Design the sequence.
């Protein structure tokens, strides 16, 4: 399983636990963990501008 897949699985699990209506302390902890997962996902995913630049460079090089 890739890092991306693991992070997405973890995010789904955390969101599921939040939907169960945890107490305030657990909710705060879950939200903190979600922020960490989101930050990790952001660092893995290329920005939309990066994707466009990569596509443009391929188009110019004839790939």
Sequence:
């Amino acid at each position: 399983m890739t890092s991306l897949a693991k992070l997405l699985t973890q995010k789904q699990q955390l969101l599921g636990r939040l939907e169960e209506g945890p107490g305030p302390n657990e909710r705060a902890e879950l939200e903190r963990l979600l922020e960490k997962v989101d930050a990790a996902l952001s660092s893995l995913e290329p920005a939309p501008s990066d994707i466009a630049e990569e596509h443009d460079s391929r188009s110019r090089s004839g790939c």
Q: What stands out?
A: The chain has a mean pLDDT of 83.
